[in-house]
Structures are given as C-alpha cells and as structure tokens.
C-alpha cells in the first residue's frame, strides 16, 4: 500500500512502489485528466504538480512521492470554476484534439506560479517540453500571456 | 462574396420518423432504404431516414456522425444544425450515433476522381457525382479528406430547418395559432403572446404529422452562429481534463491489455517464451494474436511490463528490410511502365531538345512519416458468444464493424461501435488493426471489458506511415519563362495498401502518387506528370493531406528552381502561370498581405513562397527566415486560401495554423527510416515534429470568393515545407531536395 495526497485528498493505492505516478493516477485512482503519451518524459502530456513544481508523472515512481502534495488538472480548477490559466485556454480556444492540453496547462500554471511575468524566451523554454501534435502553439503562447496578465490583475 | 445560392441542390430529402417517446429528423435515403442504426426497432419502410436531430421527453439530441479527432467536427456539425433549429449547441446532447450505412460520405471519394479539382466541366461534374454511388454502396461512414464541412453544409442545416418547421406545425395544431405566426428560440416555439413551448413537449405530436419539407435555408446574413466566433462545444472539457477520450474510459471489472506485434508489419510470429512473463504480478493471460502476442493484466502499466518481458522470435517482414533497399525499389520503378499520366500538355521532349532552352534536372526525396497522434492507439472491447461492443476513437466505424464480424464470427447486427473523441489522428485512425487486436484479446476474456493500449513504441513502429517517394523532374526555361515541366514520382500505392486492408485492392491507377502535381492550375505550356507505382513495401496509409504532402514539396521545390533559372520573381511567375481565377486571387492576396517585393528581406533574411491546391482549396504560403549563427530561424508565415465560406472563423484559423505547423515541423525534423524491417524511430525523442520554441508567428487568411464550401483540415500542409525550403535557398543559396531539412541545416 502506498499513501498519496492527490488534489487535497489522501488516497491508498495497492501498487508496486516502482509504478510510475501516471499509472497510479490513471488506473488505480481513475484520475484520467493526466495523459499517457510517451512514457519517457518527451511529450509532457502527463505533467502534474508535486508541491507546486511541474513534473512528468511517467518519471516519478509512486514510492518516491512521499508526503508531497500531488495536483492534477482536475485539482487545478473545474469546468464551473476554472483556474485562470484554464480560463485563458478556454477564452482563446487553444485546444484542438486537446489530448496534450492538461500537460500544457499544468506546465503553464507552474511557470506562472514562480515567474508571474515570463518573457517569450522563458515561455518557450518551459513549454517546449510539452509536445502538441495539432500545432496549437501560437494560442498556447497567447494564453500563457493572457493568464499572466489576469493573474497580475490586468 | 460567392454565389453559394446557385449550388445545385444535392439529392437528399429531409423527413421525420417516430422514435420511442419522440421524433427524429434526418435525410431520406435516395431509392433504396439502408438499414438505420437509431431506428432499428421500426417497421420496414419507416426506416428510410438518417437522423441528425432526435427530440424526445429528455430533450434535444444532435447526431454528428463525422468523428472528432481534434479538427472540431462535432462543433461544426452541431452548429450547422443549431443555426436552423434554434438550440444552443452547448445545452443539448451531442452524439456521433452508432455507425450505419446511411451515414455515408460521398465526398471522401471525390479526390479519387480522374478530373482535376478546378475542372468544372460537365463531364468532370458528372463523374464526381457518380462517385457518390460506390461510396453509398460501401457504407463509407468515413471521416477524412477534409470532407466533413462540405458534406454536412447543406444536409445538416436542412435537417435543422425541417425539424424547426415541423415542431412549429405541431405547436400550431396544439395552440391554434398559425405556423407562420410562430417563431423559435433556444429550444422553444414561441407564440405571438409570448408563450413558450419546449421542443421536448412537442416531440410526440411532431412525430404524428407530415414533416414540413418546403423550407428555405436562412440566408447567411441572418445567421447568428455560423460565420461568427463561437465557442467550440468541447473547449471547456478539453481545458479542464474532463473530456473522456477512448483511453480514459473505465468500466467495472475491466481488464487492461497491451500487445507486441512483428516490427516487420505483416510478418508472422515464429515463437515466443512467456514463462517469465506469466508469473509477473497482475497477469490474467498471455494471448497469441495475429502476428504477435498480447497480455491481459489488471492495469495498463503491468500489461506494458509483462508484454515487454516476453521473448519473441519474429519472421522477416514481407518487404525489403532496409531503407537503402526501399530507395533502390523506388528508383527502379522509374524504369517501369507508368501507373498514370494524367497530364501531358504540349510537348516536353521538344522543349528539352530546343537548343535555346536551359534544361534543369533534379531528384527529390521525401521520407516515410508516422502520424503519431499523442493518444496512442487503444480500444475497449467487451465480447460474448454472440455480441461485441467496441469503444474506440476511429474514422472508420463501418469498416470496423465489418472486420470485427469477419474476425469473430459475430453477426454484424450484434456488433456495436461507440466512437470516442480522439487525441489526434491525422489519418492514423483510418486503420483498425489496433481494434482487431483488442477484439482478439476480448474473445479470450469473454464477459469482461478489455482495454487494449499500445505503448508509444508499439505505436511509432506500427504506424502505417506516409510512403517514402522519389521524384525525378526535368524543366526548361527560355526567354525568362518556364516553358516545360516534366514531373515523375515513384511511390508505393497508398490507396492500394489502405483499401487492401479496408476492403480489398483498388483497381486502376493511384492518383495520389501524383496529386499535388498533375492537378495544379498552372499553365506551363509543356507540362507532363507521370506516376510510377513501386511495389507495395512497408504498408502505408493516408497522412494529413495524403499524396499532396510529399508531392507538394517535390513539385513546388523544383518549380522554384525553374523560377530561379528563368530569372523571374517566384510570386509574380506563379500569378502569371495560374489558370484558375480563385487560385490567382489567393496568390494576389498573399502577395499583398505579406508585402512581397521579392525573396530577399535584406542581409541574412529572406522568404520563400509555395502554392498547392488540394481538396479543392487553393492555398499559398510565404515563409520568412533568418540565417543566424546558430542556424535557420523561421520568423513568420503568411497563409492564404480560398474556402468558399468561413463557417467558424476561430476554428478555421486554428486548422490553417495547425496545418502550417504540421507541414513545417515534419519537413524540418521528421522521418521514419527502416532497418531490419522496422523504423529506427521509436518515440518522440527521435520523431518530434515542431516544438514551441521553433514556432513562428503565423498570419492566416481565408477568402470567400468561390461557390463551394470546402474543408480546411489538410490544405495548409502541402505548401509549408516547400515554402520553407525555398526560403532557405533564398537566404543561403543552399537548395535542399530531400526531407527532413535538418539533414542539411540546423534550425533554432
């Protein structure tokens, strides 16, 4: 049994300690907003926050999470009450297929938490770890900037 | 503004039929009724309707049979119906329905007709019309070929209008107020005194009256949704992680599975040793499947671990084992008999022997490319002795049903395919091998749903890629004009490979080997296009923009070489050569929008231009680059096209932009190269398309001068790669004749 704190709730999962957090979330806990894309930290679709820092859930063994707070896209905001980053994503209609967007949004939210007013270079550097096959990048960039503006009260 | 009102009314009629507790509106099929999935409980004769709108006590359901793989198909279909029906697409139920032959897609086959897409002659129209017949016979409920919007444009609005007027007629009978005095608003019929009657409450009455079919479609100036910025129906769910893709579905008692099949696609399994694997945690069973082995376990990760622990011996793949041998086959095909010669204007040979002409020759190569959508292939299947239920993202639900019946022996009427939203496709889900594998494992676990998920590695190496192609071309310039273009491309046949898996080999030449070359509206006086069919090697399939994706690069790249040799401006020469008014308007608009004055933009900066007409859409793009000390940087792209009418401006911009990025990213960075029958590229670390830091600013513009409404999911792909290659030549003098470009230049 491994104890995990996910979106503010303590959960017990009966899995091997070496199972990647991604699969514990998806298959053991049924939290499926976090996506499987590559399994080798190349696509970023599985990005979640561990104590507020963006990590690739396919690279974190559940046994290594410890007491750190896990936040997934579902814990960031909801359809009724979206996080400002999600609200910007909705307003600019970023998603096409949408499969990478949970990861994009989690990366963007973690970036803005530490860097409230990122430069183009900083956005490029952080978000280039998240692959989008549909090519939504121009709107991703615009949405990060819109969210930054909103979070700063603009 | 175009003359859309003059478009010939297509051969469909909208009618209604009673359904449990309500009424359904949709198309009557012409002549012979086909079985209808939503109305199977109705008596024969009543079943001749294909529903798009269903209203019962629970409310309004819009049925959107074209699948959504990210291109916004559900949203545009819902908005087309809603425009006439007066409902809010965000507050009604939406479903793709179950597959049935009545949802056939005639437009998919139009690309296969032997007339160029700008040819509006009587014969060309007639043959394209005839193409609707085989499509109907095949029950091709297929999503693809940028056809969703053109196919649905009139049909779904008519369905909405007939439903609206029939509901008003029902309200008229109930209230005694004449139908002409009634209006509709947000799912209600409204009387002059302001009483509001919900559609759901009128449904059973509407089912009993003759549908009102003499309706006029609302003119575009009266539209409240179409042509305006509307919110995509799935945008909130996709921004909050709450949309369930096929891979996210969960059922009680569900098992999880994964597979490994022969990396030489189609090659056999010789033997395997699962002794170590079978004792691993969570294993239910190891199942031999077609050309491989599957593992059923209690979660996906364990299934991955176990399947990778099986020792397997594979037979050779049924094609040359290495990329070098494949290139040799493609080169040899040029010495064989032509597969097609769809264009042979003037006399190219005479021009090549004209001593006053300058003759150029070149060879262009494009590689195999994976679709690699981000959601790996997956399917959930629940099997019993006489019933199959299948949940999966697919563009071909009808074919899945047929193939599932052949594989399982279950009667087709007891096979149910529930189409799920897709995490991308780009043509990948025009194949169904992954579904059949899931069925094989579910048949070994009868009574329990089995979710089969491919690892990314299985996905990347079993992708049915776009074919590698080798083009040879000659051209002649004289007196500052392009006088001759002789284009020949060799390729395995995508259509033969793909249709072979769907329903058997396709007879006749494969026009996709040369689409993007033979069918371009350019008036080069001596112009010949020849396709050579190489043997079938790696099995291939349709990849976003199909033949145009590779041919577009080859054709526009060498054309730019001819322009340079002739000493002409490439933009002005494209405009001069253009024989199609709508295409010329696109080029002229691009010239103006991009401020084109020539390829040079000063020291270390330049631009290239390319034009390609595909899927009925003329599209021209300018790519601006800077040569930096660290490599080529793409600064800005202008993309202009002609679509007839912009129905969803937010999404059209997204599709054009996405297609440009798709075209650029793969031209820059991607290839599958084969070794020992399998691609060397196994995951996104060596097949990564474009990333954010490489993404330029993109200005997209869609013109509305034409009569036909056209789809926009693919046409921005073909010109992007050649416009970039032409820009690289303009900035550096380096002419690159093979993809990916990063074999020759660095990108920053």
Outline the structure in words:
- The complex is a heterodimer of chains A (154) and B (748).
- With 154 residues, chain A is α+β, with helices and mostly antiparallel strands.
- Chain A has 6 helices and 5 strands; from the N terminus they run ββαβββααααα.
- Chain A has helices at residues 21-28, 73-76, 84-91, 101-114, 120-127, 137-151; strands at residues 2-6, 9-13, 47-50, 53-56, 69-71.
- A 5-stranded mixed sheet of chain A has the order 2-1-5-3-4, with helices on both faces.
- Chain A is globular, with a radius of gyration of 15 Å.
- The model of chain A has no long low-confidence stretch (mean pLDDT 97).
- In chain B, helix 12 runs parallel beside helix 13 (433-443).
- In chain B, the strands form 7 sheets. In chain B, strands 11-12-9-19-16-17-18 form a 7-stranded mixed sheet. A 5-stranded mixed sheet of chain B has the order 1-2-3-4-5. A 5-stranded mixed sheet of chain B has the order 14-22-21-20-15.
- The chains are: A alpha+beta (154), B alpha+beta (748).
- At the A-B interface, helix 1, helix 3, helix 4, helix 5 and helix 6 of A face helix 7, helix 9 and helix 19 of B.
């Amino acid at each position: 049994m491994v104890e995990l704190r996910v979106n503010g709730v303590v959960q017990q999962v009966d899995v091997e300690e070496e199972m990647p957090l991604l699969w514990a979330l998806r298959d053991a806990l049924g939290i499926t907003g976090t996506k499987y894309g590559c399994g080798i930290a190349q696509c970023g679709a599985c990005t979640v926050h561990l104590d507020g820092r963006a990590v690739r859930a396919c690279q974190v063994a559940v046994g290594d999470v410890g007491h750190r707070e896990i936040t997934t896209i579902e814990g960031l905001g909801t359809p009724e009450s979206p996080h400002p980053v999600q609200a910007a994503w909705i307003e600019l209609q970023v998603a096409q297929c949408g499969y990478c967007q949970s990861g994009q949004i989690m990366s963007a939210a973690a970036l803005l938490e530490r860097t409230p007013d990122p430069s183009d270079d900083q956005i490029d550097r952080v978000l280039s770890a998240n692959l989008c096959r549909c090519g939504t990048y121009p709107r991703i960039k615009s949405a990060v900037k819109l969210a930054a503006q909103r979070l700063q009260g603009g | 503004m175009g003359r859309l009102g003059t478009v010939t009314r297509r051969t469909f009629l909208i009618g209604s039929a009673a359904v449990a507790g309500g009424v359904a509106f949709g198309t009557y099929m012409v002549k012979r009724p086909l079985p209808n999935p939503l109305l199977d409980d109705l008596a024969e004769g009543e079943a001749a309707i294909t529903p798009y709108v269903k209203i019962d006590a629970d409310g309004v359901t819009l049925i959107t049979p074209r699948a959504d793989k990210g291109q916004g198909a559900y949203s545009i279909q819902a908005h087309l119906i809603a425009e006439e029906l007066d409902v809010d697409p965000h507050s009604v139920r939406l479903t793709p329905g179950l597959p049935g032959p009545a949802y056939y897609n005639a437009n998919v086959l139009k690309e296969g007709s032997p007339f160029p897409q700008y040819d509006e002659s009587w014969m060309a129209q007639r043959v394209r019309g005839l193409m609707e017949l085989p499509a109907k016979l095949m029950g091709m409920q297929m999503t693809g070929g940028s056809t969703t919007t053109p196919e649905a444009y009139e049909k779904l609005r008519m369905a909405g209008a007939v439903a609206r007027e029939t509901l008003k007629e029902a309200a008229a009978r109930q209230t005694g107020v004449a139908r002409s005095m009634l209006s509709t608003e947000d799912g209600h019929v409204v009387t002059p005194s302001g009483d509001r009657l919900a559609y759901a409450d009128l449904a059973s009455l509407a089912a009993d009256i003759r549908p009102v079919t003499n309706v006029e479609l609302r003119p575009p100036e009266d539209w409240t949704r179409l042509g305006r910025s509307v919110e995509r129906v799935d945008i909130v769910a996709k921004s909050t992680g709450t949309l369930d893709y096929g891979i996210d579905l969960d059922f009680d008692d569900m098992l999880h599975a994964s597979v490994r099949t022969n990396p030489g696609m189609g090659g056999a399994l010789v033997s395997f040793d699962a002794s170590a694997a079978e004792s691993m945690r969570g294993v239910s069973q190891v199942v031999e499947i077609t050309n491989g082995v599957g593992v059923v376990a209690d979660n996906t990760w364990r299934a991955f671990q176990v399947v990778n622990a099986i020792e397997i011996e594979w037979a050779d793949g049924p094609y040359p084992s290495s990329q070098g041998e494949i290139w040799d086959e493609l080169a040899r095909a040029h010495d064989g008999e032509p597969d097609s010669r769809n264009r042979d204007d003037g006399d190219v040979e005479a021009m090549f022997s004209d001593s006053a002409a300058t003759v150029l020759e070149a060879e262009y190569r494009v590689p195999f490319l994976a679709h690699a959508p981000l959601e790996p292939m997956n399917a959930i299947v629940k099997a019993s002795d006489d019933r199959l239920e299948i949940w999966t993202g697919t563009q071909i639900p009808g074919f899945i049903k047929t193939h599932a019946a052949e594989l399982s022996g279950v009667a087709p009427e007891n096979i149910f395919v529930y189409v799920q939203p897709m995490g991308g496709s780009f043509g990948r889900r025009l194949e169904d091998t992954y579904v059949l594998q899931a069925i094989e494992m579910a048949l070994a676990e009868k009574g329990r749903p089995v979710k089969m998920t491919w690892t990314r590695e299985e996905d990347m190496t079993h992708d049915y890629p776009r074919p590698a192609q080798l083009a040879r071309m000659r051209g002649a310039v004289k007196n500052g004009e392009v006088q001759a273009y002789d284009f020949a491309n060799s390729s395995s046949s995508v259509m033969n490979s793909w249709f072979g898996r769907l329903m058997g080999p396709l007879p006749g030449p494969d026009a996709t080997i040369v689409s993007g070359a033979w069918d371009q509206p350019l008036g080069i006086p001596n112009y010949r296009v020849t396709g050579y069919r190489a043997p079938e090697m790696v099995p291939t399939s349709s990849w976003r923009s199909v033949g145009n994706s590779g041919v577009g690069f080859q054709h526009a790249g060498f054309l730019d070489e001819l322009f340079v040799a002739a000493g002409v401006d490439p933009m002005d020469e494209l405009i001069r050569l253009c024989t199609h008014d709508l295409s010329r308007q696109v080029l002229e608009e691009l010239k103006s929008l991009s401020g084109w004055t020539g390829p040079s933009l000063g020291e270390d900066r330049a631009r290239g231009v390319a034009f390609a007409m595909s899927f009925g859409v003329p599209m021209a793009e300018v790519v601006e680059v800077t040569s930096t000390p660290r490599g080529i940087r793409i600064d800005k792209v202008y993309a202009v096209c002609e679509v007839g009418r912009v129905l969803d401006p937010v999404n059209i911009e997204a599709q054009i932009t996405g297609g440009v990025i798709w075209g650029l990213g793969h031209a820059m960075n991607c290839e599958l190269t084969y070794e020992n029958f399998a691609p060397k590229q196994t995951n996104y670390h060596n097949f990564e398309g474009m990333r954010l830091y490489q993404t330029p600013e993109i200005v997209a513009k869609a013109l509305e001068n034409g009569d036909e409404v056209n789809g926009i999911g693919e046409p921005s792909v073909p010109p992007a790669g050649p416009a970039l290659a032409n820009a690289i030549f303009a900035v550096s003098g380096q002419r690159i004749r093979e993809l990916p470009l990063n074999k020759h230049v660095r990108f920053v």
